[in-house]
Design goal:
five-stranded parallel β-sheet; globular; 5 strands; alpha/beta; 39% helix; 5 helices; Rossmann fold
């Protein structure tokens, strides 16, 4: 797989990496994505530091990123490092905290979803990926 933006897995399947320290939330996301043929979870990590290495290795289309993580970096603080590791990745901040304004002000975060709205995660993911494919002037 190449590292170019817009690269997807097999037959239009978007590759997803999850960076989340809560095993219950990781399990919920795994279950949600198992039923979505166009979204494939290719790996997960509990800290931003491990997540950055995972993103480099897996070259995902979408990164689901918690804010409060194991390790020294928060998701918001690490967003730029994820974009540096793989510039084509779409970063969706998914957190229990109300960080909508923080996410909107951070150019490295492409979307925001509260954890109490996980049921709509597949739709939000598809919308963000479609917006990336369309490009900034085509939305």
């Amino acid at each position: 797989m190449s590292g170019a933006a817009g690269t997807a897995g097999t037959a239009g399947t978007a590759r997803v990496v999850l960076v989340e320290d809560d095993p219950t939330i990781r399990a919920v996301v795994e279950i949600l994505l198992e039923t979505e043929p166009d979204l494939e979870l290719v790996g997960s990590a509990a800290s931003a530091e491990l997540g950055i290495e995972l993103v480099r290795r897996e070259a995902p289309d979408l990164l689901l990123l918690d804010n409060q993580l194991e390790g020294t970096l928060t998701g918001v603080a690490a967003a730029s490092a994820f974009k540096e590791a793989f510039p084509g990745v779409v970063v969706l901040l998914c957190t229990a905290l109300d960080l909508a304004e923080v996410a909107a002000a951070n150019a490295d975060i492409d979307g925001y979803l509260r954890k109490d709205q996980l049921a709509v995660l597949p739709d939000v993911a598809r919308a963000l990926l479609a917006a990336r494919r369309a490009g900034p002037g085509d939305c």
